[in-house]
Amino acid sequence: MVGIRALKKIWMDGRLVDWPTANVHVLTHALHYGYAIFEGIRSFDTARGPAVFRLPEHIDRFMNSAKVYRMKLPYTAEELTKACVDLVRANGVPTVYIRPIGFSGYGEMGLDPTKSPIQVAIAAWEWGAYLGAEGVEKGVRATVSSWVRMDSRSLPPQAKCASNYANSALAKMEAVSGGYDEAILLNAQGMVAEGPGENIFRVKKDVVSTPPASSGILRGITRDSVIRFLADEGLVFQRTDFTREELFTADELIYTGTAAGVTPIREVDGRPIGNGSYPITRRLQKRYEDAIHGRNPAYASWLTHVG
User: Which of 36, 45, 189, 288 is the residue whose CA sits 20 to 30 A from 128?
Assistant: First the structure.
């Protein structure tokens, strides 16, 4: 994790503004009550220049998050898609992380967000592998968190809302303070859900599984991509619940996410995972890298070229 280096422009409320001027008031409603929905998207360098990976799918999830939270966005999906492309072009940096966010702005205080205006901003910055380049290569150390993934009866996990990530932050801080790289959260039923910001895949005897949406996970775009990769690799795949103990006995464990990419987990709570090699993870990493950099025509439709 490194500090954010300022780029030139941020898209804010319909126009590109200089990075230092993209500010909000201290009484912005979302700052106090967490009423904000957001996305994490990446642009990568390809032979044809910058290309945003699975941009329509990310914007679609952004719109659905707004619908779940009764947030009336003042922009269409098409306008936000164009804004993301314009932002990458304006900053002139091909490989960036893109963060659209919709939030209740400066208006009235109190729990009801409908009394405040909805603002939308899109920022982009350079961000390497979220769990570190060494983690992508050698695997990361994880711990099962004492914090439980929030239940859908409390907050909707399918919506990418800022308030949900307080749960993730608690798990992340606990893991790091214990000397681990990342956490794994169980759901209220005691089954594996996901990482603080990643989905999880388990490999056992060449069968690859991941928790279903009903386990309280966010339906990850990278998760969906990996499911496609598994089919293209001819591997057996299941959406199924699994337990904490089944983490320990896995042959391979994998974090997936826009920030994390495809990252192996080498250890959980002091228990080595498998034999230290990641044959299926490596195959998935190769597919992912080829897809995001435009090297595999099978996934060409997933790229929105900036031009």
Answer: 36
Rounded CA separation 187/39 (Å)? 23
pTM here? Answer: 0.96
Q: Kindly list the distances between the CA atom of residue 246 and the CA atoms of 74, 200, 265, 268, in Å, as whole numbers in the listed order.
A: 45, 12, 14, 11
CATH code: domain of residue 73: 3.30.470.10
Residue 174 falls within a domain, yes or no? yes
The answer as to whether 4 is a domain residue is no
Instruction: Give the pair of three-digit tokens for residue 236.
Output: 């057996």
Whether 172 is catalytic: no
Q: Of these residues, 67, 72, 82, 160, which one is catalytic?
A: 160
- List all residues 6 or more positions away from 109 whose beta carbon is below 8 Å from its beta carbon: 27, 29, 32
**What is the tens place of the pLDDT at every residue in 162-210?**
999 999 999 999 999 999 999 999 999 999 999 999 999 999 999 999 9
Closest CA to 258 of 97, 135, 134, 46: 97
pLDDT, one tens digit per residue, over 37-49 is 999 999 999 999 9
The residue whose two tokens read 């169980």 is 186
Domain extent at residue 76: 9-125
Q: 260 and 148 in one domain?
A: yes
Q: What is the mean pLDDT of residues 212-238?
A: 97
- Look up residue 270 and give its two tokens: 């002091």
- Contact yes or no for 299/278 (Cβ under 8 A): no
